[in-house]
Write a structure and sequence with these properties.
Radius of gyration: 20 Å
Strand order of the largest sheet: 3-2-1-4-5-6-7
CATH architecture of the largest domain: 3-Layer(aba) Sandwich
Helix content: 25-40%
Strand content: 15-25%
CATH superfamily of the largest domain: Glycogen Phosphorylase B
Distance between the termini: 5 Å
Number of strands: 13
Order of helices and strands: EHEHEHEEHEEEHEEHEHEHEHH
Number of domains: 2
Structural class: alpha/beta
CATH topology of the largest domain: Rossmann fold
Largest sheet: 7 strands, parallel
CATH class of the largest domain: Alpha Beta
Number of helices: 10
């Protein structure tokens, strides 16, 4: 699709809803650089900090984020999002106007948007990345409305890249394999992970990875910190706070980091026996890459994470626990002795990129 277009300079922009969209852009940025393209990053807030640490020599532009706020309870999330809808719509309009100017001033030849609805233009080809072609909702009719809205924006792009596997054995299930597809071409590009699987000796029995928007990140952190001290063995807690110097009082058996760069995080996860984390899709892809046992704790009210945790527990790939009724000691011990069978999925590689751009 893009073979007759001279692509030299690529703009890539992740959504600021948690860190997952930014982290899964990392292997794509590496692939672009490895294939000789110039990359410009557009981000704001925590994703901008994370990507600046990973790619200090790449130009980064400030693109105001959606700044989604969560409710303190899962039941209140729907109303919290509904209240923010006018601002979300305004942000989509603002980022679209911003893009039209940046295309010219930065001489951009290709745009890659990870779940940012407004980054499309007729001036250059634009790619939309998402694993959520279906947006889960408690009611079927609401789900259908959400899919129509989702597809309205996706269909403004030239092509949609889905970080999953085509076919019956896949990771995201109904999220990435809906009955009705968008009108534009959809390409399953394989899973995305910034981490590498290495054989390190086990140093920690438990590795707690925190992520996602506030206040739920802090709610889970407080619950875990109150319980980790009762666990036998060494624990590691990565708070998911890049750029923060805030200290945390933790139990004596726990090593705490606000954030770890990719190579260190990869090593620490490999050196841990059991991972305890959110069931965000980007995190799950990294667990699959490292073939790690994990307890998945969905963010309350986030239907995508609830669906993924339930699906992956049912397939016996991971263990799932509810945040509200979480018993760290009992459930982690139970998860440790459960048998798991994680498939060996194909992961996106730099060598895949030329064909993807050729085909669109």
């Amino acid at each position: 699709m893009f073979e007759n277009i001279n692509i030299r300079r690529v703009l890539i922009a992740p959504l600021d809803w948690g860190l997952g969209h930014a982290t899964r852009c990392i292997p794509i940025i590496h692939a672009l650089l490895a294939n000789g393209y110039e990359v410009v990053i557009a981000a704001d807030g925590v994703p901008a900090v994370l990507l600046a640490k990973e790619f200090p020599n790449i130009k980064s532009l400030t693109l105001v984020g959606y700044e989604i706020k969560y409710a303190k309870t899962g039941a209140g999330l729907f109303w919290q999002l509904l209240k923010q809808l006018p601002r979300i719509v305004q942000t989509i309009s603002t980022e679209n106007a911003w893009l039209q100017k940046i295309i010219v001033s930065e001489k951009i030849d290709l745009v890659i948007s990870d779940n940012r609805f407004g980054l499309h233009t007729k001036l250059v080809p634009c790619i939309f990345i998402t694993h959520q072609l279906t947006i889960k909702a408690p009611l079927v009719w609401v789900e259908k409305i959400l899919q129509k809205i989702n597809y309205y924006f996706i269909n403004q792009y030239a092509v949609c890249w889905v970080p999953d596997i085509a076919g019956a054995i896949n990771l995201a299930g109904e999220l990435s394999h809906p009955i009705v597809m968008p009108k534009i071409p959809v390409k399953y590009i394989g899973l995305l992970s910034r981490l590498e699987n290495n054989n390190y000796a086990i140093e920690f029995q438990y590795c707690f990875l925190l992520s996602g928007p506030e206040p739920q990140r802090t709610v889970l952190e407080k619950k875990l910190v109150a319980s980790i001290g009762a666990l036998p063995g060494k624990a590691l807690l990565v708070r998911g706070l890049p750029g923060s110097n805030k200290e945390l009082m933790a139990p004596l058996n726990t090593t705490v980091y606000n954030h770890l760069p990719t190579h260190q995080l990869s090593k620490m996860i490999c050196a841990s026996e059991m991972i305890i984390c959110r069931s965000g899709y980007s995190t799950i892809m990294e667990l699959v890459r490292l073939q790690k046992k994990a307890v998945l704790i969905p963010t309350p009210g986030q239907t995508e994470q609830v669906y993924l945790a339930k699906k992956l527990a049912a397939t016996n790939w991971f263990y799932s626990a509810d945040q509200t009724s979480l018993n760290v000691f009992t459930q982690i011990n139970e998860a440790l002795y459960q048998s798991y069978s994680i498939p060996d999925f194909h992961f996106f590689h730099s060598n895949d990129l030329p064909a993807l751009l050729r085909e669109g």
